[in-house]
Write a structure and sequence with these properties.
Elements lengths: L3 E10 L2 E11 L4 E5 L6 H9 L6 E6 L2 E2 L10 E4 L11 H7 L8 H14 L15 H13 L5 E5 L7 H17 L4 E6 L2 H7 L2 E6 L2 E6 L1 H6 L4 H7 L4
Parallel strand pairs: 3-8, 3-9, 6-7, 7-8
Antiparallel strand pairs: 1-2, 1-4, 4-5, 9-10
Helix pairs in contact: 2-4
The structure holds adenosine-5'-diphosphate and magnesium ion.
């Protein structure tokens, strides 16, 4: 069964329709990548899945239950944005622990979770630093760590690497791939306009164009049998 099902999802801002009837399934543990040109609706779609925006029409369900009206905090989702928005006056440790404050965990549990996530992301030496004392790549890893400690069922990433320089982008991309391999049942939904990121990270890729799904498939399927010149152009195959 699909973990996340989008059934004819539409979203308008005023009279302007941005998402124009998207239907698709995302499986538990899957790494699903949304690609498409700037302005095609990728961020909006993530915000609809997370509950940060209301759906205009259609049904979003998690594990078979409609969640259109469920608040973001009840959806078991963590989101990582391209601008990592850390609290500047808090240490790395405090930034990562902050999201757990409301969860009712003990101080010891919080500490253990932060230390485990820091280890996974190679942040252990930096826990007492402030964000401004870190590189861009380290800051983005803190933002990912902050999501990990909440133990979400689903991670949403919105172009998390786009503010990093080329070398860091590759390193952080490998880190995210490793993270997914290490968290077996954790679903990742990842938005990018970078075709290399899409091809290397995805179990499946969904190509969006102007609020509509052009094609969904594995990287190989899209590369070998794109169903339009648009998809071929995006994936880089010679159609
Ligand atoms: P992408 O992430 O693919 O670049 P977005 O989802 O951010 O695209 O935006 C899709 C379209 O929706 C754009 O034309 C954008 O201007 C518009 N849009 C996004 N958010 C809002 C909003 N809150 N109000 C009005 N228009 C919006
Ligand atoms: Mg966007």
């Amino acid at each position: 069964m699909a973990q996340i099902r989008l059934d004819n999802i539409r979203k308008s801002f005023g009279a302007f329709e941005v998402i124009k009837g998207v239907s698709m399934d995302i499986r538990k543990g899957e790494f699903m990548v949304f690609v498409g040109p700037s302005g095609c609706g990728k961020s909006t779609l993530l915000r609809l899945i997370s509950g940060l925006e209301d759906i205009t029409s259609g049904t979003l369900s998690f594990d078979g239950q409609p969640v259109n009206r469920l608040s973001p905090s009840k959806r078991g989702i963590a989101m990582v944005f391209q601008s990592y928005a850390l609290y500047p006056h808090m240490t790395v440790y405090e930034n990562m622990a902050f999201g757990m404050k409301l969860s009712g965990r003990t101080r010891e549990e919080c500490k253990a979770r932060v230390e485990q996530a820091a280890g996974m992301l190679q942040l252990s030496p930096y826990l007492e630093r402030l964000p401004r004392q870190l590189s861009g790549g380290q800051r983005q890893r803190v933002a990912i760590g902050r999501a990990i400690v909440r133990d979400p069922k689903v991670f949403l990433f919105d172009e998390p690497l786009s503010n990093l320089d080329a070398a860091l982008r590759v390193a952080t991309r490998l880190e995210i791939a490793k993270l997914h391999r290490g968290m077996h049942d954790t679903t990742m939904i990842y938005v990018t306009h970078d075709q290399v990121e899409a091809m290397t990270l995805a179990d499946r890729i969904c190509v969006l164009r102007d609020g509509v799904v052009e094609q969904v498939g594995t990287p190989i399927e899209l590369y070998e049998t794109p169903n339009s010149i648009f998809v071929a152009g995006f994936i880089g195959s010679p159609k």
